[in-house]
Amino acid sequence: MKNIVPYPDRSSIGDDHASVAALALCVSATFLLSVSMGISAVIIPATLHADGISGTVTGLIMSLETIASILVSLLLPRLLRITSMKTWMILSTILRIPSLLLMAYLSSPGIWAIAVFLNRAGCFSLLVLIQTWVASLKFRSNRGLLVALYGTSMSLGLATGPLLLQHSGKLLRLAKPYLGNIAQGVDGFSRVIPAAGNTRFIFFLAALVSLMAVVPILSGLVLIPSFRFKAQAGVLESIMHARGPMFAVAMAGVSFFGVSAFISVYGLKNRMTLHESAMLLSCFMTGSLLLEAPLSWVSDFFDRRCFLTVSAFLCMICAAGLPVAITVNLQAFVLLFIWGGVTGAIYPTALAMIGEKYEGDDLIAANAGYALMDATGGTAGILLIGCSMDAFGPDGLPGVIMLSSIVFFSYLLSRYRELSAT
Fold first, then answer.
1. What is the pTM of this model?
2. Which CATH superfamily is domain 15-223 in?
3. 56 vs 53, 59, 63, 422, CA distance in Å?
4. CATH architecture designation of domain 235-414
5. Which of 18, 66, 74, 123 is deepest in the core (most CB within 10 A)?
6. b/e for 146-160, b at 16 or more Cβ within 10 A?
């Protein structure tokens, strides 16, 4: 595989000022796109429920998001043989905006399934390309910290989306005189969240915020790398050539998506109230948001392989300690906070390793592989945890995550020397 750079040449590192400017644009675009995704993550299933769509059909429709993510990861390098990275970052808007407007005006589950798939494909392709841009940036120091700002902006955006949704009723009242028929849509969603405006306006709001994500991209066109995938290496080959960071992302996906999906249920099954169970998830996400950047900054001062090894060990300890910690609310909240931070820090650390290893066209395939491993790990984790909790009770959640952490931790210990060249 060409353009592999095991040890980055410090003499070839570009101007930090240009890299910081590009990072600011990436963070802005990622935040705005994530806000739109956060709104969609709530309004789509809630509106389907309000329209009387069964849980099975809703689950099938939402599962198309994962399928879209995996397909984009596999196909994006091929698409970039046809068009440039800059062009596709702008073209992704064509998938995102019309799909949200379709859901605003139409209520057919079949059309919604197509719209959900297209919206996710547009969002995910833009995120992968922004991630590739971030990974290509060259910093003289604190690379892990600066790359972590990208991940933090995504977490902050996803958390902001539902908060903005709660105040959309006020926005609707302010904008209604200027919107005319736009604001006279289906109001079923207001029955789900009374403070929210009607459904059609909320989809327009999500589309508007998603469209705004293109503004930083257009502002920084001259800074976007002129990557156009011409290399022969594929996504799967990139994964095998960077097994350390790629497997780390898969393990983090099992932990992050698994905890996000099931920790509230785990709390309820352990006799917590609904509010206390929700607090478990809040502590986990808050830890990811607040600790991701400082912990990634720590990785700048150590061998990143060592940092991943310690992180895998801490994930294993957190999973093993959850059944004990859950008996006292405070210690459960503290454990989830630390767990979220450790898991969140793995993502930018692995991305920094990939950026140090690859250059040029190969970076596209590597980042597509990074996204694929994240989606695959998350999907596998959710499926395995769901089955384990049915078969073995609530402790199936920490059991699956502990097993994945042990497997990855053992792999790192046994292949530590080899990972310096992979």
1. 0.74
2. MFS general substrate transporter like domains (1.20.1250.20)
3. 8, 5, 10, 42
4. Up-down Bundle (1.20)
5. 123
6. bbbbbbbbbbbbbbb
